[in-house]
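ligand=zinc ion
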Amino acid sequence: MTGGPTAGVDIGGTKIRAAVVTADGAVLASATAPTPSGGAAMLDVAAGLVAQATATARVRVAAVGVGAAGVVDPVTGEVLAASDSFVGWVGTDLRGGLAARTGLPVTVANDVDAFLVGEATWGAVRGVRSAAGIALGTGVGGALWLDGALYRGAGAAGEIGHMPGFGDARCTCGQRGHLETLASGRSVERRYGEAVAAGGSGGVGSREGSGAVVGAAEIEARARAGDAAAARVLADAGRAVGSAVLVLAALLDVGHVVVGGGLAHAWDLLEPAIRARLDDEPPVSGHMIEVRRAVLGGDATVVGAAALAR
Ligand SMILES: [Zn+2]
């Protein structure tokens, strides 16, 4: 436990970001660079960004926290699994490698775990005893905060994106019917494209004849403008998230869920569908579940990683 600033690092598929964060969650300085190929190169860039951010902030940090894409072993600090886009990342000694490069103690976690720690420490579920986090990004990530601490299992606890029972579409993991096939940004884009191709839009989207991918932000805008297909795929995503929340509540009795990630920008379109799903089938415990939108935005992971280092 330290009262001074700590450094947080967010290691993602396209960029690596480091920030110096105070004990109150304020970002003093940050630095970002593209993610290079290979585990050692990624650690070199991460260590360089920590040095750059601390130099800009003109402070010393006592520790470094990392939120990294993939499954990270909480005991060994090694990367156990990651998507194919990370070349040479699995097997990397994330904690040891970064500690050697920075000369600082390093705490490591998955990026969605770090996001939830950020929201639980300084964000939407601050002061809450138990909460689940759901990140609706390119994929769907999840994390658990139980009795005031991150619950990690063997490294992948709370990974609800690959929970079955959500139809039969093929998931990015190769299996079928996972939550991610309905609620990720990529699946919203795929499903909207399919609806338009089938001529089922009935709205402004019907001008698309051929298979150009419409981005999630544009689908969101079209839904607000009255495009029925766009509204439907977002409502389907919201209902799927609602079902996942019910599973989390049944299993863990968490009273709060925080939803972040890029697709959470469509909160006004998702939230009514999430809420309707929860109202359809309230938990047998009778305990209310409060679902909140994340408030730390794009900084949640890097700020949460810094909180993890405290
Ligand atoms: Zn899957």
